[in-house]
Specification:
Layout (H helix, E strand, L loop, with lengths): L4 E11 L5 E11 L3 H12 L7 E9 L3 E3 L8 E12 L6 E12 L2 H11 L6 E9 L4 E3 L4 H4 L1
Parallel strand pairs: 2-8, 4-6
Antiparallel strand pairs: 1-2, 1-3, 5-6, 5-7
């Protein structure tokens, strides 16, 4: 199944650890068919967790071809990775690179790299990790067919 990911930024007043209210903007990733559906889904997914008013400040397409989520309690951060697949062009004999973006849920940079390599084990093509960096993404909401859950 092909996913279309949207980065949705939610702006609201968050109660900080010191008890003070602070306006924050938090990015969330949503799997949706359109910008309209992405907005509806992010409102539906975040409403139970936010008290008071919030606004969807921004929605943009996120180009991730693969996600590697984790069930581990410590894996509370999302890391964005850019991979280069090295393919040999048989006509010219030259190496050709194609690039793809992935998202890995992990506890830290070393853990993210380990999970990325584990997740890519079954890949036939050679690849190099060009960039791996921590994102501000708070949560990821893959598509679930609610008609099948009932």
């Amino acid at each position: 199944m092909m996913h279309t990911w949207f980065l949705c930024k939610i702006r609201y007043e968050k109660v900080m650890e010191d008890g003070m209210n602070k306006k924050v903007t938090e990015p969330h990733l949503v799997d949706a068919l359109s910008f309209t559906e992405a907005e509806a889904r992010i409102i539906e997914e975040t409403t139970p967790f936010i008290t008071g008013e919030f606004t969807v400040a921004d929605i943009s397409r996120a180009h991730y071809s693969e996600l590697f989520p984790s069930d581990e309690e410590a894996a509370n951060k999302w890391y964005s990775g850019r991979l280069a697949f090295v393919i040999l062009d048989e006509k010219s004999g030259r190496e050709k690179r194609t690039y793809t973006n992935v998202l890995v849920q992990a506890s830290g940079m070393d853990d993210a790299l380990k999970k990325l390599n584990e997740g890519m084990k079954g890949t036939m093509a050679d690849y190099e990790s060009i960039v791996l960096k921590e994102t501000a993404i708070v949560d990821v909401f893959p598509y679930t067919d609610k008609t099948k859950e009932a």
